[in-house]
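BUG: 3D viewer hangs when loading the predicted structure for this chain

Environment: internal workstation, default settings.
Expected: structure renders.
Actual: progress bar stalls at 90%.

Input used:
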Amino acid sequence: MQRHGKILCEAGFQVCLVGRKRKKSLPLQQEVFARKRLNCFFEKGKLFYIEYNLRLLFYLLFAGCDILLAVDYDTLLPNTVVAKLRGKKLVFDAHEYFTEVPELYNRKAVKYCWSLIGNSCIPKVDLAYTVGPALAKLFTQQHGIPFHSIMNVPPLQSLASFGSNQPIKPIILYQGALNVGRGIEELIFAMREVEAVLWIAGEGDLSESLRALVQAEKLHDKVVFLGFVLPNKLPELTLQAHICCNLLLPNGLSYYYSLANKFFDYIHAGKPQICANFPEYEAINKEHEVAVLCKAEPNEIAAALNKLLNDKELYEKLRNNCKRAAQVYNLQEESNKLQKLFARI
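Structure tokens produced before the viewer hung:
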């Protein structure tokens, strides 16, 4: 959302990004757009979503704006209600297949409620887009309105030091939330067969259990937890890695149709990666070959990592392919698409 906020500001819009303030929220850093944090008593669960939607509804009723942009289903209802009451334009940005995330796809009642909101509100929007072509096609068929694809990619930087800072001892990097379905447990088990060090950058629901797993498997000399890392610190961390990881379990269609921003972050850093063998990644890898695709199973992960560690010719091929792929998948290209979409409304 920060990237999109900057893009829209550059196009002449005044942007305000609305979110919530948590007990452990870090101070806001300076940006070119305004920010508003809503205070919520509840931190998670049904009561949180009800409270946040009510607070967002009342905030939007009196906010000065011409366009409302809802990000995912959990902000869609208040945005839709206010847009219709006030006669404002409504935009929907689907970051994922919300009703198919691992936390929902086996909970029929909760999934039904969110599906009802989506099916009721999405046909009313003036503009809709999502993170990749496959998901855009699926949503277009599902909701009967055109969905566009705006990929979450980094800006194209100078490539003079592209893929530099190679470590003496191989470092494997996982960055992102430590949540169910990310293949992190399987990655840790795989490290028993890999002569390298795994850095895990992030925190989440599995923070404690993953640390306990490392101790139980006696892998503390191979797995290092870096904790939460600020987004602006991740690029320099990625440059220190030899191989990066973007693994997912097939727990729901949201992961199956995902196209994670870290997939492109790794490409822009010139780092070959092991990656889930899902449709969006397969399509890009078929065109550019920047990754070794595998299932999130310990034996397959270990084989993919060892292949990149031992096959220097393959590693260099993928690293050079990253440089060419970065010229195709970058924020400058996606910025033009997003600005043209907003110019239509």
